[in-house]
What we know:
By secondary structure, the chain is mainly alpha-helical. The chain contains 13 helices and no strands.
Amino acid sequence: MLDQSWLWALFTIIAAGAQTVRNATQRELTTTLGTAGATHVRFLFGLPFALVFLIVVLLASGASLPSPPAVYWPWILQGSIAQIAATALMLAAMSDRSFVVVYAYIKTEPVQAALFGLVFLGDVVTLPMGAAILIATTGVVLMALKPGTTLDVRATLLGIAAGGMFALSAVGYRGAILSLGLQSYLMAGTFTLVVGLVIQCTLVSAWLLLREPKVLGAIARQWRPSLLAGFLGALASQFWFLAFALATAASVRTLALVEVLFAQAISYFVFKQTTTRREALGMSLIVVGCALLIWVQ
């Protein structure tokens, strides 16, 4: 049987792979639903699958639904709302000419998650863990900030803010999971995923109803392709939350940088795009950083 101390890494890699495929699916939906509609699909169509995951856990374990303590709700609200805010900042970045720069700063998320995790949860980052986080993050930034890329204040602020919101989201979800005080990480992670998606579906649906009601109709008409994106999103989130139940937000979000390697592999094998020396060096640093992180955990 697999040692539970390694499960967080396995869960994170599965989540990153599912998220890479989901991102590709969502990009296709953007042409018909727009960025806001395609983003909402991950919440709206992910919720039914998350409910199925919860039912499976309930039936398999024979346990009842947990009764969240009062402290649970600030954590889950932080995670849910910060994730929506992070997505909105990313959408704003997509219209920016310096999106590549923005992406580099977004991927400073593991460093920010380490800081927020220490402040809010007391998650200690050892010196080897800190080195692993910096090495992997440097690899991503090196891949994104190519020669000739222009830097500007707006891109910097958008990227750091988005990365910060993603980090706060990860810390919020981990805080919610830990506050349940359950022995079963399966129940704690799965239950928290469902609650988070209910909150996000409610908030984003209300916003679209008030601001862009036509988008909701377009989403309903595109329900067939949206189901796949919803399933992949729920699958990725399920494993993210299980990983958060077992390891610090900083560790999970650092290892999540393997998503960059998956995306690069798709570009190389599917779209036949060549890999530059700079990209190869960046990927090597990501591999080294992630391997070191798993080793020292």
